[in-house]
Amino acid sequence: TITSKISSGINAEWPLRPGMMPVEQQGTNPGDIPEPVVNFIKWLQHYISLNEIYHVENMYEDGFYKLSDYYFKDKPWPSPEAVQEILEEKDEHSIFMILYRELYFRHIYARCKPTIEHRFESYHNYCDLFSYILAPDQPVSIELPNKWLWDIIDEFVYQFQSFQQFKSKSGKMNEEEKIMLRDEDDVWKVTAVLNILIQLTEKCNINLQLQAIEAGEVVTEELAGEFGMRPIYRMTGYFSLIGLLRLYCLLGDYHMALSCVQHIQFKDKDMMSLVPACQITANYYAGFANFMIRKYAN
Predict the structure, then answer these.
(1) Residue 193 to residues 42, 117, 236: CA-CA distances in angstroms?
(2) How far apart (Å, rounded) are the C-alpha atoms in residues 254 and 286?
(3) Do the Cβ atoms of 61 and 54 come closer than 8 Å?
(4) Buried-exposed string 108-120: b where 16+ CB fall within 10 A, e elsewhere
(5) CA distances for 141 relative to 95, 103, 136, angstroms
(6) pLDDT tens across 90-130, in order?
(7) Taking Cα atoms as reference points, which of 47, 86, 57, 63 lies closest to residue 10?
(8) Label partner for 233 (CA 20 to 30 A): which of 40, 127, 133, 140?
(9) Which of 49, 51, 50, 67 is nearest to 10 (CA)?
(10) Do 289 and 161 touch, CB atoms closer than 8 A?
(11) What's the rounded Cα separation, in Å, for the pair 178 and 160?
């Protein structure tokens, strides 16, 4: 069955088999992509479409990083165009292609050197992703693992920071890059990034939910709203509070940074403990903000 193949057998297909093309010779044409990578992409799309959160989580946390280390240690994953052809996906703006591009660009930032085109395209892809979540009048049906949702928010803030650092070194840019910066002056603007994160928190009424939890009350649909009762909205809104904490720290507004997490209880059983990386980030930036405003006891 599909389930048994993923849970017990697909890992056996990932290692390089005799006769398979060496890493340095792989291209981005569909025929050049290793079979285990093709299988991974197809199964990931399959499980995301079925909202099989357990299998998506395993493939994201284990399979993606194993394949990255084995086949793409210092090179990009297959291009979105090649993946679209493999999947016979006609819509380049389908939710799976948006999520694949998120992984694709994140890997480039982590393992390669992003070009200015990568930076622009990644920003527009994040806009597509957040529009998919925020724009509908009804909650979207898709669900993603908490770890992936956190990584999306964390990477969004990181790429904003990386772009500002890149932009500050305009003296090292060629003329074409300078022209692109002038023409795309709305990309990675601080107001746009802040607005997206704030919208994500407001969509699910996360602060009202946290206040209710703090008071020992039960979070109801009347309080959280239709969107706030769905895990993808609740957790994305929660992680966006940590993203705002980090972003305001980067901007030097430490009082505003702490106000974003005033209703978060920094306890082991809090929501942030579901993703250790989120817990570490929240404690680090909250501690840093308190230190900068001389609230040493906090």
Answers:
(1) 32, 19, 15
(2) 9
(3) no
(4) bbeeeebebebbb
(5) 11, 21, 11
(6) 888 899 999 999 999 999 999 999 999 999 999 999 999 99
(7) 63
(8) 40
(9) 67
(10) no
(11) 18
Distance CA 157, CA 193 (A): 8
Confirm whether pTM is higher than 0.90.
no
User: Please, which residues have CB within 8 angstroms of residue 282's CB and are 6 or more apart in sequence?
Assistant: 242, 245, 261, 264, 266, 272
C-alpha–C-alpha distance, residues 12 and 18, integer Å: 14
The residue type of 112 is C
What pLDDT score does 244 carry? 98
Structure tokens at 96: 């799976």
| CA–CA separation, 145 and 151 (whole Å) | 10
Tokens 């393992």 map to which residue? 111
Token representation of residue 197 = 């994160």
Q: In this predicted model, what pLDDT tens digit does every residue of 143-156 receive, in sequence order?
A: 999 999 999 999 99
Q: Which two tokens stand for residue 293?
A: 């405003």
Q: What residue has token string 């006609």? A: 90
